[in-house]
Design a protein that fits this description.
187 residues, alpha/beta, 24% strand
Length: 187
């Protein structure tokens, strides 16, 4: 069995990438063990996966970025977390947080970065007439969706794609790519 890296996943919403990461982490050869889930949203649907798989979780309100990040860092240190995965976490971490954490932080983004940083990605892709889109796993920096690219997966934009259909097809690729990027980096 590989020595697994103690990992925390940050979420804000549905948690489908979290679910995929949990399933992958159950493989004895997968290099991470999810020991904590943090959310800024008490109503995040993804918290049901924390409960279902008996993974400890914390919800910190985001009234103050400074207090939110301080609470997160205290919890990460207490649990000796050495890797963070952002999975649908809809906040930008500060440079101070990233420097204080000292270990790798990955994010998954639903476009082929550097194109279409930020939110409303699929609508912007369709409006622009792009022929291809996809997803990117990248290192997190304090600049939105700008860290070093680890891996990308490209898919075609179909003539009949809607925002919903494109989101669903990209999300399927995200689930595969995130695990692949973790294996690639730590495997």
């Amino acid at each position: 069995m590989v020595k697994k890296i103690k990992t925390c996943v940050f979420i804000s919403g549905s948690g489908t990438n979290l679910k995929s990461l949990i399933r992958n982490s159950r493989d004895y050869n997968f290099p991470i063990k999810i020991e904590l889930i943090i959310s800024n949203n008490i109503n995040a649907n993804g918290l049901k996966y924390a409960r279902k798989y008996n993974i400890p979780y914390k919800v910190f309100k985001y009234k103050s970025k400074i207090i939110f990040e301080k609470n997160c860092l205290l919890e990460l240190k207490k649990r000796k977390i050495r890797f963070i995965c952002l999975a649908g976490f809809m906040k930008v971490l500060s440079k101070k947080f990233i420097e204080n954490f000292k270990y790798k932080i990955f994010n998954i983004h639903p476009s082929l970065l550097p194109k279409f940083k930020g939110i409303n990605t699929h609508g912007r892709v369709l409006k622009s007439g792009e022929k291809f889109t996809g997803c990117t796993v990248h290192l997190v920096t304090s600049k939105l969706d700008s860290g070093k690219i680890i891996l990308q997966k490209k898919i075609s934009v179909l003539d009949n794609d809607t925002e919903k259909s494109l989101r669903e097809r990209v999300l399927k690729q995200e689930h595969k790519l995130y695990a692949k990027a973790i294996r690639y980096t730590f495997g």
